[in-house]
Sequence to fold (276 residues):
Amino acid sequence: MQVIETVSGVRNLRGQIKNSVGFVPTMGYLHDGHLALVKRARAETDTVVVSIFVNPTQFDVGEDLVSYPRDLERDLEFLEREKTDIVFVPSNKEMYPSFSTWIDVEGITEKLEGLHRPGHFRGVATVVAKLFNIVQPGRAYFGQKDAQQVLVIKRMVSDLKMNLEIVVVPTVRESDGLAMSSRNVHLSHEERRAATVLFKALSLAEELWRGGEEDADEIRFQMTSLIAGISLASIGYISIANIGTLEEMKIITPPALVSLAVRIGKTRLIDNAILK
Fold:
């Protein structure tokens, strides 16, 4: 496994690779959700590249950039075990030496996470485009947990005619249903137990849908009531939306994306499910 810190180093190495390249962009502090992406890339491509970069431009003022968990040594040990070929670990200065060009994906970035985190998806789209340009992968792998991010990146790739495929890997969960996330490390023992309410609310939505409930407002109401019973939980949003446009639904027409953001104590968590 080669660990590269510079753009020129990655480009020089990339020029020597003639077979297929799979790419997994991450912000580090890896868990089994990230490793599922690496395993999928390992199974489907010849050379696997992983980036570890905590992108400052996708954090809003007051968000947890400074406290975002980091453990590079641990991450590299994980990636070595997964037989990763190249790990790109740039500094902020390497990625943003002098910068004034941004990518805005309009429409779908103005809802859900974008509404609550202004500028977030501009930072995401820009850094991912930069990484795609540097690594030049044939396939890039993302987790379904960040459903809106996946939609934004897919739209960017389509609109800008980028020559790569976006592969979406199902959300990896703990045994009690909590979606794996680097932010889970911030949860206290009590908060960790409370955090399962996100999965319970999504499961309730799926159960109601399978039982014949098509009224999106009724499902939102029951999800809200369930979460309101947890004293440590504060709802950011609960959405049942068109999976392509993120327009909210009144009567559910599948496939629909059920997504939510809930703050457990001081930690903001997101999750989603698809009603098919």
